[in-house]
Amino acid sequence: MYRYDQYDQEIVDARVEEFRDQARRRLAGEMTEDQFKPLRLMNGLYLQLHAYMLRVAVPYGTMSGKQMRMLGHIARKYDKGYGHFTTRQNIQYNWIKLEDAADILAELATVEMHAIQTSGNCIRNISSDQYAGAAADEIADPRPWAELLRQWSTFHPEFTYLPRKFKIAVIASAEDRAAMRLHDIGIELVKRDGKVGAKFFVGGGMGRTPMIAPEIKDFVPEEELISYAEACLRVYNRYGRRDNKYKARIKILVHEIGADEYRRQVEEEFAHMKTLGIDPPVAELARIRTYFADPAYETGLSDAVDRSDPDFALWLDQNVVTHKQPGYAIVNISLKPVGGIPGDASADQIELIADLTERYSLDEVRVTHAQNIVLPYVKKADLYALWQQLDEAGLGESNLNLITDMIACPGLDYCSLANARAIPVAQKIADRFADPARQRDLGELKLKISGCINACGHHHAGHIGILGVDRKGVENYQLLLGGSGAEDASIGTITGPGFGEDGVVDAIEKVTNLYVAERQEGERFLDTYRRLGMKPFKEAIYG
Amino acid sequence: MILLTGNDLASGDVIWWTGSGWSRHVGEAADAGSEADAILARESAALKVNAGYSVEAEATASGPLPLHIKERIRASGPTVRADLAINTAIPIVRA
Fold first, then answer.
1. Which pLDDT belongs to residue B62?
2. pLDDT score of A3
3. Most Cβ neighbours (<10 Å): which of A304, A346, A350, B83?
4. Residue B95 in this model has a pLDDT that exceeds 80
């Protein structure tokens, strides 16, 4: 894992003290809310529906046990005993007091964490593959690249006031587990002539105008990564729409001028950037890479696992993923128990995961964009003991990528931007499809719910998506089919008129029943939808 | 009727204008009528309320309630965490 050097620590510590003074001045009435708001947002502190909300950055979703334990400590000491893991691989707390905020940031700084770049029109927390460094299918660990981009983007003076927020994801496998092409910049590491470089996709995103990012550059050598990223940002910063918030994301610029013209302008800027010498020496990426070297694996371990406990065997088949290292496995901890709130974890659960991280996962844990947790380095011999402890704490749900493993934004229960509640809908769907055998029969089915058009719940990218809207003061839910955030990325299509809370659950049952009736051997829900098209699903829903 | 709401500056708690101060319970809220803007300006300047604004409301058997669902959820607390609610008896959807 990356560790702060003295510069990292100094700037984070200085930022805490700067914010402490800003908060003091606001509490003393020396600043108005209008003056204070941009300052608190630059430190991840929002004013939400019920209270202040603090969003803490988890760079590319990676933490140590000690850092995870701190998140549990903050939930217990400063919040109401829980936190919410987000689709940006971050965590947010819903009940923060302004008078505590600087103390929380100071506590986070002691474990090399902060809340910088979790709000505002800057480059946000870089996201990545939750299996990075452990996946059997990756060509390299993407996190050193993500970390280099993090260092480049932190407090970058040119990109602190972009036209709009800016999200970057980095992956290194053909299977996209990070919704890479739905980012402002998606980077896929690829190999050419034995060298690893970056393929750039620019102009993706969700929100009110969902777009899949087109490929802009097929290969950028690692020694030119920063120059190329800077060129992409410069063109956006120069021509992105600042006159209209809803047209300010880079996806609109790329769409309006076209990918070819955007590429031409980036190449022109890139040629200029290369003369400036802003790229760090190759040795710097090599230095960062040493932090992400393989952990001290034990060798000669057996791959055998005793499957005699049937509940454990189910979890093993559903939540445990192949590791690149013999004798090890990647464990997914579901935060989607039936009846629970997607992405929420109690302080006790967070602290237990911290303990298990240290005991069983070589002191590393990950947050996923699907609001789950990953232990990336678990010995197969430890899987049963680990599962028993997870299960006892309500963390043993065997539903990874099944219909109850839903992404849901906080919705109108917590968010001041939302138009409708998302969590109660998620709970009703989970209740309707609670039978584990039924879930497994339906197979991979990614259901994603947003409480408003901003799409924090990724509804555009759901095999089944739900968008909550306000229809004359009443919550209404539109249903979408056919989206995907994976390597076969696609944007879902609205089925037709919306539904009430119960109606949308019934509609989902109708489309899954049709899928079961019409599927061919080996087809996922998404495959069947793509083969049949919308018409029969629409008839099943409204006919 | 018009209710005034906002957040407590230090704690962030949702608060409602009672006619003489601020309460965490919408049932104690008072109609601000035509004085809304003046009260908000005065109370904001005195740091008694943060990010204050006015909402349309109606008188009900259980006291004043905002018309819009968003404000009703602010008044009741999250509907999915009864243990954290301010008042679970508040009807979220208008009759």
1. 83
2. 95
3. A350
4. no
| DSSP, residue by residue, B27-95 | GG----GGGHHHHHHHHHHTTSSEEEEEEEEEEETTEEEESSHHHHHHHH--TT-GGG-S-TTS-SS--
Q: How close does chain A come to B33, measured CA to CA in Å? A: 22
Nearest Cβ partner of B14 from A50, A80, A475? A50
Chain A touched by B69 (CB under 8 Å): yes
Contact A538, A495 (CB under 8 A): yes
Nearest to A27 among B10, B14, B78 (CB): B10
What is the CATH T-level fold of the domain A6-109, as seen in this structure?
Sulfite Reductase Hemoprotein; domain 2 (3.90.480)
The pLDDT of B35-51, averaged and rounded, is: 97
For residue B86, what is the nearest residue in chain A, using CA coordinates? A50
What is the per-residue pLDDT for A406?
98
Closest chain B residue by Cα to residue A427: B80
- Partners of residue A346 in chain B, C-beta under 8 Å: none
Angle between helices A225-239 and A259-273 (to 10 degrees): 120
Q: Taking CB atoms and an 8 Å limit, are B80 and A424 in contact across chains?
A: yes
Give every residue of chain A whose pLDDT is below 70, as ranges.
none
For the segment(s) A134-290, the CATH number from 1.10.260.40, 3.40.50.300, 3.30.413.10, 3.40.50.1820 is: 3.30.413.10
Which amino acid is residue A353, in one-letter code?
Answer: I
